[in-house]
Design goal:
- The radius of gyration is 26 Å and the shape is globular.
- The chain has helices at residues 4-15, 19-30, 34-58, 65-72, 75-104, 116-134, 140-164, 168-174, 184-194, 202-206, 214-243, 270-276, 282-320, 339-354, 359-387, 410-429, 431-456, 489-505, 528-548, 562-573, 594-602, and strands at 247-249, 252-254, 400-403, 406-409, 480-484, 508-516, 552-559, 575-580, 584-586, 589-591, 607-610.
- By secondary structure, it is α/β, with parallel strands linked by helices.
């Protein structure tokens, strides 16, 4: 199970990779206002991060905005969010793979230019799709290590840049040509394009099921990622535009940071361009270029793989909820991986959008999908606040404004306005992305309607879940047994029984420990003694599961009422429940604690009660 540092490192490895291409894409449009554009997009991203923190804690399951929309609205809106997310993953794969050969051009120059950069990108995509079909898994520890090295390197570049080349007069005066370079329309377009800098925020949502303490770990990790990325994108452009300032030429204003390689610029490898102009010389410069080139290519390779995995995961989830045909849910008979979704979405479509080699088009297409997906996420959180206005159990991120009994989330309102307007800017200003993006939505919605109406003969807005696939899919989906635990022999007996049942069925168990938070405290507040006891119980459960060789997950839940938290977790996991409880006499039947009674009354699944080595 993942804590805050692991979630942060994994997410930053995906989000932080975008500096290696976003800097050049944005500088080519925003010129001297690039730092300001990144600040504005960073504020929008901060609001989006808060929305994802609240939504993911409420529904700690893969899916992000699609999951939020399902709970807040209906399946049709959920499909629109998921289809927009799919576009994001496809563009992430294409753009990350395309920039890998540009950073490897330090070893072979032609990789910077057409057609070898496109060939290199296609090779990266094909290789990763094949590896994922075979079933090669990511090395989680290696990804975390590289993410830390990546952040340290970017921070080092900032420190060296401030020491050697930063010039406030150039950045805050010479480079600025308000309303002229860029024009106001270009300035407003650059803001949604700059959101590509935050590619990968969905990563934390996809890892939510592996978070041990979601109310504490998820908001913290998202805020750490937001802070770290914002710090880099606020400072690195200042250095870059000092080293490669805006200059006036016969054709207008330009910076080498935003020019294509065939024009002598560094649009496709902006961080290498920065290293070349830091004032380093000789072997130090040569070593720095090799180091940054290899690191950037490696990080972009991992980001491409994250996109491939994300595309396959969301395709599988969409097919599970009957948004896509069942065929996309089937696994390879030998490798037990969703090979068709990998080939179609992560492979063929990604390569098709990569082949033209138009990075501006890719950036605008990402902005189209991301802004739409983020807007739906913001609106979903607002709608959930209205629907659950009287529910003290609900996790809420601050700041809020209470009006007529509703705690209106100010971050989600600001975020929805920011991302919604940004989406409209892309649609209005860029004809290519406008028609390609709207076409993508139209094809997806038409396919969804036809599949629901004529194949399933089901309502468009109803949530349907595909039946469990027995056989190859058992590796991805099987019945779970949920076991609430706390220190003591009774919990160990419940875990023991659950493990024996799971071993017989080839199933898995989920151990949860509930920390009941008083009303006067926030759900994410620390209760050190209670948390310590909860972690001890979870560690004991994990040890027993290991003895039986049973797959197990452990999670700490924070709630106002333990029974409700257990029921909600069982519903989310589609699990049956084994709960311990000592019965006492009461009107002709066994009466258990309030928690067990609540579970028995409200759980929409089988409940087995363990009481003193007996099961009822």
């Amino acid at each position: 199970m993942l804590g805050t540092p692991a979630l942060f490192a994994t997410a930053y490895g995906n989000v932080g990779s975008s500096i290696y291409y976003a800097l050049g894409l944005v500088a080519g449009i925003a010129l001297g206002l690039t730092p300001l554009v990144f600040v504005i997009s960073g504020l929008i991203f901060a609001a989006t991060a808060a929305t994802y923190a609240e939504g993911t804690v409420r529904f700690p399951e893969a899916g992000g905005s699609s999951s939020f929309a399902r709970h807040a609205f209906n399946e049709l809106v959920s499909f629109a969010a998921a289809w927009a997310q799919m576009l994001n993953y496809i563009i992430t794969i294409a753009i990350s793979a395309f920039f890998v050969p540009h950073y490897l051009s330090i070893f072979w120059g032609p990789l910077r230019e057409n057609p070898w950069d496109i060939v290199g990108g296609v090779v990266v995509v094909v290789s990763l799709v094949l590896l994922n079909i075979v079933g090669i898994r990511e090395a989680a520890r290696l990804n975390i290590f590289l993410a830390v090295i990546d952040f340290a390197t970017q921070l080092l570049l900032v420190i060296i840049g401030f020491a050697l080349v930063f010039d406030p007069h150039i950045v805050f005066s010479t480079n600025l040509h308000w309303g002229l370079a860029p024009t106001w329309s270009e300035f407003f377009l650059a803001i949604p394009i700059a959101m590509i800098a935050y590619t990968g925020i969905e990563t934390v949502s996809n890892l939510a099921e592996e978070a041990r303490d979601p109310p504490r770990d998820i908001p913290r990790s998202i805020s750490w990622v937001a802070g770290a990325v914002f710090a880099i994108y606020f400072t690195l452009p200042l250095i870059a535009l000092s080293a490669l300032p805006v200059e006036k030429t016969k054709s207008g204003y330009q910076t080498l940071l935003g020019l294509r390689p065939d024009q002598g610029g560094f649009k496709n490898d902006p961080v290498l361009g920065l290293v070349e102009h830091l004032g380093l010389h000789g072997q130090v410069l040569h070593a720095a270029k090799i180091y940054v080139g290899i690191l950037a290519a490696t990080i972009l390779f991992i980001a491409t793989n994250a996109g491939v995995i994300g595309a396959s995961r969301i395709t599988y989830a969409m097919a599970t909820y009957r948004q896509l045909p069942e065929v996309f849910r089937r696994l390879h008979p030998k490798f037990k991986t969703p090979w068709l979704s990998l080939v179609v979405f992560a492979g063929l479509i990604s390569i098709i959008v990569l082949l033209p080699g138009r990075t501006d088009f890719l950036g605008a297409m990402y902005a189209f999908g991301a802004m739409l997906s983020f807007t739906i996420a913001h609106l979903a959180v607002i709608a959930l606040r209205v629907r659950t206005r009287g529910d003290v159990e609900m996790f809420k991120v601050r700041p809020n404004l209470r009006i007529r009994g509703v705690d209106w989330p100010l971050f989600a309102i600001f975020g929805a306005l920011g991302t919604g307007i940004a989406w409209l800017v892309v649609v209005v200003q860029r004809a290519g992305p406008r028609w390609a993006g709207l076409g993508w939505l139209a094809v997806g919605l038409a396919g969804y309607v036809c599949y629901r109406r004529f194949v399933l003969k089901a309502p468009l807005t109803a949530t349907l879940r595909a039946p469990m696939i027995i056989g190859p899919a058992i590796a991805l989906e099987y019945r779970n047994i949920l076991v609430p635990v706390k220190p003591g022999r009774a919990s160990e007996e419940a875990i023991d029984l659950a493990c024996r049942l799971a071993a017989d069925r080839g199933a898995a168990i989920g151990a949860v420990s509930v920390v009941v938070v008083p009303l006067e405290l926030s759900l994410e507040d620390r209760l050190e003694e209670e948390e310590q006891r909860a972690y001890e119980a979870l560690d004991s459960a994990a040890a027993i599961a290991e003895l039986y060789g049973v797959a197990a997950t452990e999670r700490l839940l924070r709630a106002r009422h333990a029974g409700r938290a257990i029921v909600d977790e069982a519903v989310r996991r589609h699990s049956e429940i084994i709960v311990m409880g000592a019965p006492r006499a009461g009107r002709g039947r066994a009466v258990f604690s309030d928690t067990v009674d609540f579970v028995l009354k409200h759980a929409p699944c089988r409940v087995m009660v363990v009481a003193g080595q007996k099961a009822a």
